[in-house]
Amino acid sequence: MEFNDIHIGMKCGSVKGSGTVTWIDGSTKTIYIANTADNNSFEVDFDDIIEDPQAHNREDTYY
After folding, report:
1. For residue 13, is pLDDT > 50?
2. Rounded to two decimals, what is the model's pTM?
3. Its domain of life (predicted)?
């Protein structure tokens, strides 16, 4: 994935959790994501974005 592929409203996952992109800072390549569970925002460096098409929350469990 390229940095230019990311857009506001996109669902994505990261090492910090998953959610919806709310803001993109192109100068620092920082992406601000709103958590899907409680709508709290957190910032993620572009290099920490997971390219897996399935975005999971940290609370998700796998069987």
Report:
1. yes
2. 0.75
3. Bacteria
